[in-house]
Amino acid sequence: MIERMLPHIVPGLIYGIGALGLALTFRYLKFPDFTVLGSIMLGGIVSVTVTNQTNPFFGIIAGSLIGGLLGIVTGFLIHRLKIQPVLAGIITFTASYSLGYLLAKEGTVALQNNSILSPTFKSIDVVKIFLVAATICSFIHLLIRTKFGSLLLAMTADKHFLRLRHREQGKVFLITLFLGNAIVGLAGALYALKEYAAHVQSHMDFLPFSLGAIFGGNAVAIWISRKLNKSNVGNPVDEKTQTNSKYLLRTFSTFVSTERDESSRIGFLFFVYVIGCLFLKEVSGLIHCNAFTTIHPALDVPANLQYLVVAVIIAIFVWWAGWEEED
User: Fold this and answer.
1) CA–CA distance from 105 to each of 18, 19, 140, 200, 215 (Å)?
2) Is domain 2-326 given the CATH code 1.20.120 in the classification?
């Protein structure tokens, strides 16, 4: 069972990195950005194309930048042409297909140069991707503490406030779309360098996996926070010990809370999104290779039902997230 889990760890973590970019726009701009489907696809194709001409590091930078540029295009459609955000993302994503086919003959481009990742499982690759994810979470943690972070938090206010009081709305909107899609482009670049190829028709499961991880991560964080808050009430045993334990519980419960947008909480919450994506990718991969039968024959789930099972898990996450927030 464990051996069958290993091949899906690095792809799951890479999808988790992409989920960080989607979460940045989804949490603060309040819409699911379909641009990310083009960003992760083009990020991979551009990365492989540039890597074949130079090296993987330039390929990763190029893949990230093309994702960010797609975010700028979506922002232009929204702010200049007044197109609805979700539709603008779909338009940009659709147009990105043409650029993908221009760069990839017959829709596929193979890596011909050396890569920083192995196509087979290696523990060092897990460490590399984990460090990248942790670095991005730390970056977001620091970003929220800046002036731009304050302006970004203000983007969650009502439309009346944004229209009359937020003077930097357009600039913050564009920068956030650029950053979010650049992170997704980075994920696409890493995925392509691991697979030693990139395809135009790829990563269609990225958006549902990421959104499922975001909703699931929110629900889990809220549930843990509330459970810990309830644990703060108990029978006193030793005043000093009780005070210390209550302080630790209260500190941890506020640390994982989603109700405030302080930098430390956001960094932790975004890391939960990475783990959520890893979990969904593992479930899908294990069903695809029929690994659950090694636990018990009754767990024999046909491989063609892998996405149905993931859809059910995502539905549970979405329901749980809404239920926890309303409770």
Assistant:
1) 25, 28, 37, 10, 37
2) no
Cβ neighbours for 61, distance < 8 A, ≥ 6 positions apart: none
Listed by start position, the domains of the chain span 2-326
| Contact of 189 with 109, CB cutoff 8 Å | no
The length of the chain is 327
In the block, which residue shows the tokens 């995502």? 314
**Cα-Cα-Cα-Cα dihedral sign, residues 58, 62, 63, 65:** positive
What confidence tens digit (pLDDT) does each residue in 78-87 have? 988 999 999 9
Query: Which phi and psi angles does 210 have, rounded to 5°?
Result: -70, -45
- Closest by CA to 198, choosing from 72, 103, 284, 126, is 103
Cα distances (Å, whole numbers) of residue 324 to 259, 267, 277, 288: 12, 21, 20, 31
User: Full-prediction pTM beyond 0.90?
Assistant: no
DSSP H helical ranges for 196-262? 206-231, 239-255
Q: Are 117 and 190 in contact (CB under 8 A)?
A: yes
